[in-house]
Amino acid sequence: MTSRRYDLSCVLITLALLGGAMANKLRLGSPPDAEPHLARVREAAQQVTGEVPNMIVRQGHVPRQAFELLRPNVLDARDYTDLASSVNFSVLLVHCGDIADMGAHYPPACYPGSGLKVTVNGLMPLELSGGVLHGIEYHLEPARDSDREPFCLWNCMFLPDGSSTYLPAELRRYARIGNVRYYGSGQIQVLVRASLDRAQRVAVYEQALSIYRRAIEAMLSDPRRESTLHGETNPTEERLTHE
Fold first, then answer.
1. Is 114 left (phi over 0), alpha (psi -120 to 50) or beta?
2. CA 20 to 30 Å from 144, out of 52, 69, 178, 182?
3. Alpha-carbon distance 99 to 183, whole Å?
């Protein structure tokens, strides 16, 4: 039986359609030192090229509505095929310059709108550059009879104090802390067929993180360029501690 290969276009459309409530929040104005941080994130994301050894890479479609409603600093969708294993996977990477714009965009909120049932497979922390990314894996399957096959998705969100989370409530908490919200938040979603076993899926997720490592490190870096991926104290974290 021929399997239907997934790309991320439906994901982005769903994000756009369901993102209006949070994206329509009034922007109060960024602090003066936010733009250099956002520019570093953009630069790092631009260094993720479409060329990966032994892989076919296809740029995903990004609807105009996604830019209008998410107001992203970075938004990138790509499909990958590993020529050695023939495994297909897709990656969505997004970074918003206002943490509040990200707060409503996570799989259980977005995917049901495209006819998919979302369940939690379990917490799945993964390592990157000596640090731990606190991610979660979801299982997604058609809510009705369909030719679409189930797939799994690894999801993690990034904050500018060097922390990562799978909890959207954490994004909303940071969005309430003064100017911290304007240093932005990021998110990565990696999608792969559910027919792969757990070890194979983890290998795919780690491969995707390796491809996007520099962009993720930039999203996790302190706005004053002091990297916190390895857990060092930073000025943003000190401000949060005293709130």
1. alpha
2. 69
3. 7
